[in-house]
Amino acid sequence: MPSSQFGPLGNLRVFGVKADSQWQGMLLARATGHYTRLGQLGRELVYLSYVESAPWNWEEPAIGQEPRYKGVGSQLVELAARWSQQLGFGGRLGLHAIPQAEDFYRRRCGMTDLGPDPDPNYRGMHYFEFIEDQVNKFLKG
């Protein structure tokens, strides 16, 4: 894919959500080198290398912590999905999730959990993917 398709910033993007002069969450995405494992195999997707919501935005029932800002992770995933659409990838996304985030991607986002990745570099992390139908449902939701 020609680098001009990505614009002057290249194939990487950092998305962030800021409120009250503080960063509430960040996401790092890459638009090259990753391909679908669902649907039509081998189509390009945007890979999410890093997604994090600030600790004060986590719900922690064990200590009675309510998130200061809800929906930060969902907003970040939405930004990445819209970038994927702009690139002509149909909103397709892929990522490896840390165990405590698996439920978020599975239930909140509606991504498909393809189970533990056998690649030893991912240490058994579950691989998740969004295909077009799922993305459209997520973005409407």
Main attributes of the structure:
141 residues, alpha+beta, Aminopeptidase, six-stranded mixed sheet, 3 helices, globular
Number of helices: 3
C-alpha geometry: globular
Radius of gyration: 15 Å
Distance between the termini: 31 Å
Using DSSP, what is the number of strands?
Answer: 6
CATH superfamily: Gcn5-related N-acetyltransferase (GNAT)
The CATH architecture would be 3-Layer(aba) Sandwich
Query: How many domains make up the coordinates?
Result: 1
Structural class: alpha+beta
Strand order of the largest sheet: 1-2-3-4-6-5
CATH topology: Aminopeptidase
Query: Unreliable stretches, pLDDT < 50, 5 or more residues?
Result: none
Main sheet attributes: strand count, strand direction, barrel closure: 6 strands, mixed
Q: What is the average per-residue confidence, as pLDDT, rounded to a whole number? A: 92
What fraction strand? Answer: 25-35%
Topology as a string of helices (H) and strands (E): EEEHEHEEH
Share in helix: 10-25%
The CATH C-level class name? Alpha Beta
Note down, in words, how this protein is organized.
- By secondary structure, this protein is α+β, with helices and mostly antiparallel strands.
- It has a single domain, classed as 3-Layer(aba) Sandwich (Aminopeptidase), CATH 3.40.630.
- The chain contains three helices and six strands; from the N terminus they run E-E-E-H-E-H-E-E-H.
- The protein has helices at 72-86, 102-109, 132-140; strands spanning 12-19, 22-30, 46-53, 93-97, 112-116, 126-130.
- Strands 1-2-3-4-6-5 form a six-stranded mixed beta sheet.
- Strand 1 and strand 2 form a beta hairpin.
- It is globular, with a radius of gyration of 15 Å.
- It starts with 11 loop residues before the first strand and ends with a helix.
- The model has no long low-confidence stretch (mean pLDDT 92).
